[in-house]
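Researcher: Going back to the complex we discussed earlier. I've cleaned up the inputs and rechecked each line, so this should be the final set. Can you rerun the prediction on the complete assembly and write out the structure?
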Amino acid sequence: MQDELLESHAAEAWEALAQVYAASRQVSADQLIEWPAQLKMCGAFQGKRVLDVGCGTGDKARFFAEHGAAEVVGVDPSQGFSQNWKGHPDCSNLCFALGSFENLATLPAVASRNFDLIVCFQALMYAASLAEAVQMLRSLLAPGGELVISVPHPFRFAILRNEIEGWGHGRAYQQTAPYRYPSPWKEDVLLEHAMPRISDYINAIAATGLRIEAVDEPAVTEQFRLIAPEKAVWMDRYVGILILRAHLDE
Ligand SMILES: C[S@@+](CC[C@H](N)C(=O)[O-])C[C@H]1O[C@@H](n2cnc3c(N)ncnc32)[C@H](O)[C@@H]1O
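Model: Rerun complete. Updated structure for the full complex:
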């Protein structure tokens, strides 16, 4: 019941955020720091079958499709973001589906197949169950496949809850229950999700038998400080993101 409430809260919040989020992409930490780091972690994706879960605007899925992936499926539960998918040029190796971690395996574009590269950027914390979502992603990987997961750095929420609730950073970091906070893109829209620690993400991946190959915590670049000084201040305060790459041994 609590899981369903969380799921419907996240869905509503993202309907309200979809267009403002899409419009903020041009000069963003995502475009200038996160996406280059996520892409690097994906390695060579040319010729691969790619699944992007929680794809949002679909721009990253489209990038994979336009730069040599064999085929790409983007999945997101937001009707608001699906408006952006319609704007994409016809790309025969790219398709999108409305769906979520919770119903992934039932989607015709995903069911009964597997993928060489599964990416999940800044979305896994919305899963009703972290363990079940990672297990589901694992089950869709082809032997030898890679899973690249990018999440807000868990320190970020410890810092935020220290500021909002006054808890010590250590205490705040250890609170993994769902927490509701103002979205950075539109403060009057509240986002809510579980607060996994670094160990929770690592253990959820390790429990599936996947082997963690690399971890990254991309830092603010000098170029970013010049182009987006206010966003650099935000990153300096809240750390940024955590990226993990895991491999399914053949
Ligand atoms: C911060 S956006 C990230 C979008 C995109 N991956 C990117 O990197 O720009 C988070 C996305 O997670 C999606 N989301 C929320 N709940 C989800 C769920 N239960 N399953 C899959 N995606 C979900 C939202 O609709 C939203 O598009």
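Model: Worth noting: The chain has one domain: 2-247.
Researcher: Good, that matches what I expected from the previous run.
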